C-alpha cells in the first residue's frame, strides 16, 4: 500500500482536509502534499513512528504490503446519452491487491440503459483507462462532450454503441462521425460494484 493511500483513507474516514491532517501529524502542509504526490517517500524511522501513532496502525509494515489500493471515484457517468462527463474526484474506493492492477478509477452510473448487464443506477463501475476496446466489450465512451457507458460493437465499418436495456436503440457512427464528433473510448469497464445501504 502507498503512503498516499494511507493518508487519504485516514482523511476520508475522519472527514479531514490536508491542512487538518498535517496539523494532527505535526508536519507542514507542504510536507504532507509531497507525501501525497509521491514526491517524498523515503521517511525517517521517527516520522514513520509518528505516523503510526496518529493513524493507529504500523505504517512501515503497511507500506510494504500490496494488499489493497485506493482508486478515485471520478464523478458520474450517464448510462444513457445526455450527461456531461465530469472528472471531479468525489471520493476513493478501496480495492484488493488482485483487482487494483485491473483498473484506474471508478465512475458512478446514472440511468437504466445497462440494466441487462447488471449495471444499475447508482452503481460504481471500475474502469481501465484505454482508447480502444475489443468488439462486444463494455466501455466508457465520450460522444462530443457527453459520456456514456455502452457495449461497443464494430460492424460494416461502423462503430455501434448498444444499450443492454431493450427500450434504448443502438447508436451507429460512421468513421467520419467518429472523427468529427468525436466519439472516443475513454476506458473499458472491468467490473461493477453495488453498495447496499
UniProtKB/TrEMBL annotation:
InterPro entries for this protein: Cro/C1-type_HTH, Lambda_DNA-bd_dom_sf, LexA-like, LexA/Signal_pep-like_sf, LexA_repressor, Peptidase_S24_LexA, Peptidase_S24_S26A/B/C
UniProt GO BP: DNA repair; regulation of DNA-templated transcription; SOS response
Pfam families: HTH_3, Peptidase_S24
Keyword S-adenosyl-L-methionine: no
GO molecular function, one term: DNA binding
Keywords: Autocatalytic cleavage, DNA damage, DNA repair, Hydrolase, SOS response
EC identifiers of the protein: 3.4.21.88
Superkingdom field: Bacteria
CDD domains in the record: HTH_XRE, S24_LexA-like
All copies of domain HTH cro/C1-type, residue ranges: 7-62
Keyword DNA damage: yes
Family to which the UniProt record says this protein belongs: Belongs to the peptidase S24 family.
Protein name: Helix-turn-helix domain-containing protein
Amino acid at each position: 500500500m502507498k503512503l498516499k493511500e494511507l493518508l487519504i483513507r485516514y482523511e476520508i474516514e475522519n472527514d479531514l482536509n490536508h491542512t487538518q491532517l498535517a496539523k494532527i501529524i505535526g508536519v507542514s502542509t507542504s510536507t504532507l502534499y509531497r507525501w501525497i504526490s509521491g514526491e517524498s517517500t523515503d521517511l525517517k524511522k521517527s516520522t514513520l513512528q509518528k505516523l503510526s501513532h496518529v493513524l493507529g496502525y504500523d505504517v512501515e509494515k503497511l507500506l510494504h504490503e500490496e494488499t489493497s489500493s485506493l482508486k478515485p471515484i471520478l464523478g458520474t457517468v450517464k448510462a444513457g446519452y445526455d450527461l456531461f462527463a465530469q472528472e471531479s474526484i468525489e471520493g476513493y474506493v478501496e480495492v484488493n491487491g488482485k483487482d487494483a492492477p485491473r483498473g484506474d478509477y471508478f465512475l458512478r452510473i446514472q440511468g437504466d440503459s445497462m440494466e441487462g448487464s447488471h449495471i444499475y443506477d447508482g452503481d460504481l463501475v471500475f474502469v481501465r483507462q484505454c482508447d480502444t476496446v475489443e468488439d462486444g466489450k463494455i466501455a466508457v465512451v465520450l460522444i462530443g462532450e457527453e459520456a456514456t457507458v455502452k457495449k461497443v460493437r464494430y460492424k460494416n465499418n461502423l462503430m455501434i454503441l448498444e444499450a443492454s436495456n431493450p427500450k434504448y436503440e443502438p447508436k451507429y457512427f460512421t468513421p467520419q462521425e467518429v472523427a468529427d464528433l468525436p466519439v472516443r473510448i475513454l476506458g473499458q469497464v472491468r467490473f461493477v460494484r453495488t453498495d447496499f445501504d
